[in-house]
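Purpose: get a first structural picture of the assembly so the mutagenesis plan has something to point at.
Setup: two entries, given in the order below. No constraints added.
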Amino acid sequence: MRFPDARICMEGHANALALSKDNALIAVAGRSLLKVYSIDDYGFREVCNMRGGKNQNLSYSSNDVAWSTMDCNLLATAATNGVVSVWDHSKCGRQKQVLVYNEHERTAHTVTFHSSEPNILISGSQDGTIKCFDIRSDKSVNTYFSNSESVRDVKFSPHAQNIFSAVSENGTVQLWDMRKWDKCMVQFTAHYGPVYTCDWHPTRNWLATGSRDKQIKVWDMDGRPGLEYTIHTIAVVGRVKWRPERTYHIASCALVVDYSIHVWDIRRPYIPFASFNEHTNVTTGIAWLGNDSHCLLSTSKDSTLHKHAFEDATRPALKANAQGASLGRYGDISFANKIKEYAPKTSGVSNTKTSSSFINRRKSIVAGSIQFHLDHSRMYKFMVKDAFSGFPLNESDSKPRQEHECFIGCARELIMSGKKLAELCEHNSEVSKKYGRHNATTLWNFLKLFYGSNHFEPPFEHRSSFSNQKNPINQRRATQVPSDWPQQRSDLSQDLNGNAQEATHEIDAANEDDDPLGGSGVEHPPTSSVILSETQIISEINFDNFELLRNGFIYVGPTDAAKALAFPALHHDVQAARPQLEIKASDHEKSPPPHVPTVLKVSHVPPIPMWEPHKFVADALMLLNDVGDVQTALTVIISLGEARKLLPLEDTLVEHWFHTYVDQLHRYELWNEACEVINRSWLRSVQQLNQQSTAMHTNCGDCGRQLSNKVGWYCDKCKSMQSAKCCVCGLIVRGVYAWCQGCSHGGHIEHLQKYFAKHSKCPKCGHLCAYS
Amino acid sequence: MSYDDDDYPADTFPKDFGYGTYNQDGLEMEPNSTGSSETKPRILLMGLRRSGKSSIQKVVFHKMSPNETLFLESTSKIVKDDINNSSFVQFQIWDFPGQIDFIEPTFDSDMIFGGCGALVFVIDAKDDYNEALTKFKNTVIKAYKVNQRIKFEVFIHKVDGISDDSKMESQRDIHQRSSDDLSEAGLNQIHLSFHLTSIYDHSIFEAFSKVVQKLIPQLPTLENLLNIFIPNSGIEKAFLFDVVSKIYIATDSSPVDMQTYELCCDMIDVVIDLSSIYSSEETAFDSGSSSLIKLNNNTILYLREVNKFLALVCILREENFNRQGVIDYNFICFRDAISEVFELRLRQKQLENNEDEDLADEHTLMRHGNDAAVVT
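Result (structure tokens, whole complex):
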């Protein structure tokens, strides 16, 4: 059944609304307003205006209104001057106001009738008291002193006859027994700001409270009150109301800023389940139409009364991403998505369909969990298959090369000077490719483009050539992009929400651990094209710089994905901004990383500002260093020659790289290469490495200490000249002294040669000296 | 001590700013020394050393920026500071260093506690508060013996340094333990109020506002006046401010939104600062003071002087400001009503008659309520 969205305008705005027992009448109360409307399928009809005539009275200016739970003619209001009045709208004229209790010293904030005893009503006031009235008498029956500044809301519990809750401005919730006026039963601090509203759950013993600290909290009131759920809203909570027939749904409206009414599923406390956005000012009162969970009434400071049908609500939760992707340490990607109702639309499924031929796929259904949205989710884990990494294969690639082989090979073959930068880059990229370092290859190609032909003027002609080169691909992409492509992209780059994301991570970690194959990814940083959901595009681009650069940098790094993402994003836009403006519009609007605002700016400004690649090159180098490839990073810097000054890199960092690289080279005994690097350095501290003393101290054969004296054979500690003697013949050595670094024994070189021709162990200590 | 004889402009520091000695000022604290001082609330600020009392005092009453309070030296002896020159509120701030036993005979508790309306005890939330609670218990017991009408307020201070969850936890814990302490001592009837405060936001001002409001017997009347004034003038929210301290001594009954309050506070700062630069008068705040600020979200901040200490700051929508004449007329009614309310109190004090003041207040209120209603 579908209700028309009905609205009605009132003069003066309303502070509260209440529904009569039979759900046929609505009372609306405000500062200068007290009216009763009837509701039917066609809309609202004014039945009665209690503020007719000239009798303007302060006790008419109401903060709250409540219907009697028994008598459809009786209602009560709480006025700003503290007066609580009872009205009978069937009577006429001034007699409508049946009873007036002028007992509160300050503003009365709330009034409510007892659910089963029709004559009892209670009111809460700014003066910190709660008063209980019996409408058969003209005086209050009981007064409860809450000992707080101001009581903001009182509600009878539907589960216990005499219990009511009171919330107050000092953040406490109190539970009172009507019969015990001297002391409250339970008192606890619920919020760190004033609590403005509370509502009892219709079936469970739960109490929901809403506060200025922008939270709605659900308390389990069985025994000692315990916090069950917390919902974080964006604004001060004004009213809350449980949705009938739905255990976990609660409606709320805000006191400031936010004009919408939100219905929350308390198990998913970050995104509203449904929202009604009709009001143009702050909503002041909400009520569900009896037990009808599909119809909500609300009034607002915009002086309107709305009847909302649930079908018309926007569903923010549905627009949220139900996907999550995460990168593993070894370049694996796990990807979780919700399958049930959105399966045909989401990227997850289409993605796996198109990519199933590319990759090994493992599928695991996440076991049903408490998180209700997750029990229909499915997780995929993609692993990299080398054959489809998008690179033409070298013969050697069938077997992964050892890391150190690559290192040594690169160290020998990479050249750092002596040619033009373009040729250098070309050569080095070939070298990198040969050794399977695809990231480095891409980077070299990139450098060639930007710095190659003309050292310091990358901007225009380079970029134009660059865009031209990209054109076919761009166009192809633009035409090929299916309608859901951008969505997929953004899906992947955004988080879905706390829970699902967390879950994904957990699953991730778990799967990674029990997956022995994951290790195979170590040596070859994968360039898995799957993630981007652009498999069809990738397959067409063979060895293109930018696509690879993107893939490489996003997915290699175990480190900073955000940083890496920024790089391709900007890239992408620069291309897009060039020739095909019409495509750009649709394309980039949804293009992924929302955290790169500059992206948007770049493409909107018609004359594109000069794009400086320096920052990105620097980032790329940092990234390379982070993943353990200081070799390429440093080689790039050296090769750039003077252009390196454009890169925003700190000298200390570069110096560190120098030291690291030189150290590595030394370890592989690549002395010549190390020396060359040192010579190429422009940093003093590095250059000094070559100017240090080359002296090597021998050790004492007895105590193993270094003989750093002027006299190279006398040990200070042992006070002996033992180490000056040949360990074979026992005579003091003059001339060439051969010496084992392992055991510190040595002697005449010819003696040792003879000795080691027959033996393998040290003549003195039995150490396995390796004489060569 | 009456506010007739003080001549400090509202925005400057009192000339005797600094720590006067206990004996010098002792006599002036005598309750009921003048009729007018009775109309001002009197507050005692206590707490362990380094709990932030001096910072509170400097920030609230001397316009010190919160960051500068880092450089305040710790107050090492019992010191007293009077802030009663230009504010509606009369304050005395007492520092209680831990090692001084205030039960010693030289400590004239009758005089101290006898004249004060509220005792604010500051507890450092970031610190271990066991010692503070013990001290607090002793203070409360002592003060309650002397003066049973005293209101006890606990400021759980420096909450900017702790997370939202632990804010609530520490409030709950302190509440629980101090109530237990008091009931052990057989003082169940004492009611404690707790406030989470920080000098880095406006929570300290709000907490002070609540403390002060409890000490104003005319509060319900003031509130009612505001409640009448507001709907008749199309105003969303109005605060009656003490200009010097920027604490609000009354507001209408709708919930106080922090941002609105901060805006209004800032407006007072702006008005005072500007007018002390450009005003030809000696004082920055006088009967002609009024100001209007239009915000870019179609709302207007409107400030009017009420009396020497008080200003009314309203926030309203731009379209409602078309009827400025009505608002101004209503405001004049409101201002007259307020001055009558305070005069009534004064007169009553002076004549020492026991006429039921509430009744009279109500008369004033009704008359002006009708005035305002007629205009709309």
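The domain at 219-375 of chain B is CATH 3.30.450.190 (Beta-Lactamase).
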